[in-house]
Design a protein that fits this description.
One of its GO terms (cellular component) is cytosol. This is Branched-chain amino acid aminotransferase/4-amino-4-deoxychorismate lyase. Helices cover 31% and strands 27% of the residues. The protein is α+β, with helices and mostly antiparallel strands. The strands form two sheets. Strands 7, 8, 9, 10, 11, 12, 13 and 14 form an eight-stranded mixed β-sheet that branches. Helix 7 packs across helix 9. The longest helix is centred in the N-terminal third of the chain and has 14 residues. The two termini are 24 Å apart. It binds pyridoxal-5'-phosphate. Pyridoxal-5'-phosphate (PLP) binds next to helix 7 and strand 12.
């Protein structure tokens, strides 16, 4: 099932074409997006998602988004949804028509079902490969035009990495930097468990600040875990008590195999983290 809402409060027919062929999002991936999980009619982490949308817009010199209009569009999707209890709502914000100095941004919210593959991964865990992203953390300051940390529509590289993972017989990817530290997944944040402490790399290394990572850390802290945001050397991925990829739609997904090596059994930690994460909503 799909539900399409525009920012002027109107609904669209998701089976009909609306985007112009000269839209910069289509021609160049010039735009931003968010994906918000809705469960039982309630959006999760909507505030942080909208804050990040505004931050991405600023990084791309896009007009400041009207966050109240976006909130209403998400609500429109929820109000017109009569499918399963979970919705992935994509917020898409493109610059508009190429070459038109007065181009209006083209924006919409699209509610979609969650993929069966994602649900299977949540339940059964996944195999991942580590892939070099080809730069070090210093690039963030040296080359801000790379837009590291913005959630842009240019995900061709991320999808290529996922296809490489599939070629290697795995489901997903952990990107590493040239200094050997851990970055993120192509569509997820990396979380490590060692003893009763959770670790994730800081956004300053050139990754997206994850809304789910923040929610998981908040819940875990309340459940007695310590949490640390610091650089993680890639070799720690193999020796941790638990390795997880987290994101709005996949929630907390357990990694059972890394680069062909079976990891320590983290099913109990996974269950505990999932319970804590779910309990806060
Ligand atoms: N990092 C990247 C590159 C992503 O694309 C995503 C989500 O799609 C995340 C991290 C996780 O972000 P969130 O937890 O806010 O969904």
């Amino acid at each position: 099932m799909r539900v399409l809402a525009f920012l002027d409060g109107t609904l669209g027919d998701p089976a009909q074409p609306y985007i112009r062929v000269d839209n910069t999002g289509v021609l160049r991936g010039d735009g931003i997006f968010e994906t918000v999980l809705v469960v039982d009619g309630r959006p999760r982490e909507l505030g942080p998602h909208l804050d990040r949308l505004a931050r991405s817009a600023a990084m791309l010199d896009l007009p400041e988004p009207d966050l109240t209009a976006w909130e209403h569009a998400v609500q429109q999707v929820i109000d017109n949804w009569d499918g399963s209890p979970e919705i992935a709502v994509k917020l898409v914000y493109t610059r508009g028509s190429e070459g038109d100095p007065d181009a209006e941004p083209f924006c919409y919210a699209l509610g979609m079902d969650i993929d069966d593959k994602v649900k299977r991964a949540r339940a059964e865990g996944i195999a991942v490969v580590s892939l070099d992203r080809g730069f070090g953390p210093e690039v963030v300051e040296r080359a801000p035009w790379l837009l590291l940390g913005a959630k842009t529509l240019s995900y061709a590289v991320n999808l290529a990495a996922l296809r490489e993972a599939a070629r290697r017989g795995a489901d997903d990817v952990v990107f590493t930097a040239t200094d050997g530290s851990v970055l993120e997944g192509p569509t997820s944040t990396v979380v490590l468990a060692k003893g009763r402490t959770l670790y994730t790399p800081p956004p300053t290394v050139g990754i997206l600040p994850g809304t789910t990572q923040r929610a998981v850390f908040r819940a875990a802290e309340s459940a007695g875990w310590a949490v640390k945001i610091e650089n993680i050397p890639a070799d720690e991925l193999l020796t941790a008590d638990g390795l997880f990829l987290v994101s709005s739609v996949r929630k907390v997904t357990r990694v059972h195999t890394l680069d062909g090596t079976r990891l320590a059994d983290s099913t109990a930690i996974h269950r505990e983290l999932c319970d804590a994460y779910e309990a806060q909503y």
